[in-house]
């Protein structure tokens, strides 16, 4: 694109500073790029990645609580990590957290599959729009309110016990099961949406072809839909998995005395004031999530996020 | 796909059963805010609006709401500027390292909030920065950049540069082209991204807990602090119910936005 710049000599009057600056920038695209990148990169690289680096370094420090006053010992040591890896209590909490993450992921997948399938392939276009809106709306509702809602549901004189009472049943009360239910509830839309998007991408003709070739609905689902949908399910599982690993709030609201791994991190900052130990503990979920991402990379799930 | 009537019925039941599970807890919160019993046992023992008027005049909740809105507005403004700049750099220029920007931008939201929280907390404490209003804004803006970035980037890729070139060919300066051609094209994407950023910031509790000073409370912090106090339960109930009702507003706005111009992305 060529422009006849009105800044040429001989024209009466000088262009304003803003116009001169903008035409100077127009002639220097590299400078424009540098200007555009400076602030976001300063923020994300220097401030954010810098913070992560500080956290990583802090993880190798130690808070010496031997004396009357806790002293920060800045000589690098692996002691925080050894403590986290060898002490039984941390291993139990870590395994419990991974177990809850797995259960939440499986339950959410089982709930999301029929809902997403109905939305994408059975419902009329108008119903589909309404259903998508109905699934999306609770995403905007506050996280805390949703966790709190399950506290009122599962309380001793709550809705669940009231509803199950006449048939002689009882809710699980506050504990591990309640935590899994609440987390499954919180992350359900994060599973429905990628699965729905994946189903929408599968052309109806494929399903019809399978039917024409004699495949039953069940067979078509197993042999055609599921393999094509797998990357979307994995994409959803990244959310359910990663969000569960980092959660320490829901478990405080509905978990009774149950502890998740993120509670170890939080409690060391809040009560103990042991930032190095918390930072070391925070490295574990990051490693777990990076491992999971590396594991699922080949499924193509990352393109479905 | 040809499904038997039974399969269709089962799918429909599963869908509406799932929706019921999604909405019943939220409805219970709404109903409970009118429950006159102070222990909030189910079923409600009657109907009262006294908790709503008590909550409306609760100074702690009102102040926390104001703080939340101020922080969300500041974080959204920062995210709009930073996210748009990054999106322009990626969409309109070829350069070394372009591919890593998307990864870098999504990182603060992909990692668990507690990691972002600890990282910022360690950096602030290492740098001797006192926690307060501004540190919360910094924390929130960091994970809000991605929603603005995604929206603006998608829009820039779709609109291309033809209109801008036409504007330049017709003699407009870069500034005029930006103000009269580029910006109006982006308005919907900026609104959608800003709406999401505001909602994310308004709802955030984890990063807030690690970046806020003891004296300051956002609304989620206030709710969490009062959740386990029995005598505050009525007010917490009302605030929770109000937030459930308020969550319809962004859905409505997002719907209005998407009707005009293609919709937003998370």
Descriptive overview:
The complex is a heterodimer of chains A (305) and B (266). Helices cover 72% and strands 2% of the residues of chain A. Chain A is mainly α. Chain A has a two-stranded antiparallel sheet with strand order 1-2. Mean pLDDT of chain A is 86; it is low at 1-11. With 266 residues, chain B is mainly α. Chain B has a single domain, classed as MetI-like fold (Orthogonal Bundle), CATH 1.10.3720.10. Chain B contains twelve helices and no strands. Chain B has helices at 5-32, 50-56, 59-92, 98-110, 113-126, 133-159, 162-169, 174-203, 206-211, 219-226, 233-246, 248-261. Chain B starts with a helix and ends in a 5-residue tail after the last helix. The model of chain B is unreliable at 260-266 (pLDDT under 50). The chains are: A mainly alpha (305), B mainly alpha (266).
Short description:
The complex is a heterodimer of chains A (305) and B (266). Chain A has 13 helices and 2 strands.
**N- and C-termini, Cα separation of chain A:** 37 Å
User: Could you give the order of the helices and strands of chain A?
Assistant: HHEEHHHHHHHHHHH
Spans of at least 5 consecutive residues with low confidence of chain A: 1-11
Quickly name the level 1 CATH class of the largest domain in chain A: Mainly Alpha
**Percent of sequence in beta strands of chain A:** under 5%
Fraction of helical residues of chain A: over 70%
CATH superfamily (homologous) name of chain B: MetI-like
Count of alpha/pi helices of chain A: 13
**DSSP helix fraction of chain B:** over 70%
Q: How much strand of chain B?
A: under 5%
Oligomer: heterodimer
Number of domains of chain A: 2
Average predicted local confidence, pLDDT of chain B: 88
CATH topology call of chain B: MetI-like fold
**In sequence order, what are the helices and strands of chain B, one letter per element?**
HHHHHHHHHHHH
CATH architecture of the largest domain in chain A: Orthogonal Bundle
């Amino acid at each position: 694109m060529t422009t006849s710049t009105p800044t040429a000599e001989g024209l009466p009057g000088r262009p304003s500073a803003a116009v001169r600056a903008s035409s100077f920038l127009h002639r220097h695209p590299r400078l424009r790029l540098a200007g555009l990148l400076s602030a976001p990169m300063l923020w994300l690289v220097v401030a954010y990645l810098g913070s992560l680096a500080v956290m990583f370094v802090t993880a190798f420090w130690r808070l010496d609580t031997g004396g009357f006053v806790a002293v920060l010992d800045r000589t690098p040591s692996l002691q925080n990590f050894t403590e986290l890896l060898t002490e039984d209590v941390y291993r139990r909490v870590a395994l419990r957290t991974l177990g809850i993450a797995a259960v939440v992921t499986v339950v959410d997948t089982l709930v999301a599959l029929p809902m997403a399938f109905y939305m994408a392939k059975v419902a009329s276009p108008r119903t589909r729009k309404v259903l998508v809106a109905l699934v999306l709306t609770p995403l905007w509702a506050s996280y805390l309110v949703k966790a709190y809602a399950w506290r009122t549901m599962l309380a001793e004189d709550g809705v669940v016990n009231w509803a199950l009472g006449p048939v002689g049943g009882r809710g699980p009360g506050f504990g591990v099961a309640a935590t899994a239910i609440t987390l499954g509830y919180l992350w359900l839309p994060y599973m429905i949406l990628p699965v729905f998007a994946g189903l929408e991408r599968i052309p109806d003709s494929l399903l019809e072809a399978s039917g024409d070739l004699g495949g039953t609905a069940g067979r078509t689902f197993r042999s055609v839909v599921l393999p094509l949908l797998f990357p979307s399910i994995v994409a959803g599982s990244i959310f359910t998995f990663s969000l569960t690993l980092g959660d320490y709030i829901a478990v405080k609201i509905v978990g009774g005395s149950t502890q998740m791994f993120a509670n170890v991190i939080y409690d060391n900052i809040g009560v103990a004031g042991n930032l190095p130990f918390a930072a070391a503990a925070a490295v574990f979920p990051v490693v777990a999530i990076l491992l999971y991402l590396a594991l699922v990379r080949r499924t193509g799930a990352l393109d479905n996020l | 796909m040809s499904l038997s009537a039974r399969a269709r019925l089962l799918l429909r039941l599963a869908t509406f059963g799932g929706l019921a599970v999604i909405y019943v807890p939220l409805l219970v919160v709404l109903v409970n805010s009118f429950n006159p019993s102070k222990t909030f046992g189910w079923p409600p023992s009657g109907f009262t609006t006294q908790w709503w008027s008590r909550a409306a005049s609760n100074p702690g909740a009102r102040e926390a709401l104001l703080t939340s809105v101020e922080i969300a507005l500041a974080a959204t403004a920062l995210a709009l500027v930073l996210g748009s700049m990054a999106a322009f750099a990626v969409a309109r220029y070829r350069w070394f390292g372009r591919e890593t920007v998307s990864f870098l931008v999504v990182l603060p939201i992909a990692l668990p909030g507690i990691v972002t929280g600890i990282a910022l907390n360690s950096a602030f404490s290492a740098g001797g920065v006192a926690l307060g209003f501004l540190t919360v804004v910094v924390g929130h803006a960091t994970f809000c950049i991605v929603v603005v970035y995604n929206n603006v980037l998608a829009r820039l890729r779709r609109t291309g540069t033809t209109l801008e070139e036409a504007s330049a060919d017709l003699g407009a300066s870069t500034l005029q082209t930006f103000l009269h051609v580029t910006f109006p094209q982006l308005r919907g994407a900026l609104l959608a991204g800003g709406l999401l950023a505001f909602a994310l910031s308004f709802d955030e509790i984890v990063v807030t807990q690690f970046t806020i000073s003891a004296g300051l409370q956002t609304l989620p912090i206030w709710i969490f602090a009062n959740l386990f106090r029995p005598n505050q339960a009525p007010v917490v109930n009302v605030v929770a119910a109000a937030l459930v009702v308020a969550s319809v507003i962004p859905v409505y706005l997002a719907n209005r936005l998407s009707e005009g111009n293609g919709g937003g992305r998370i």
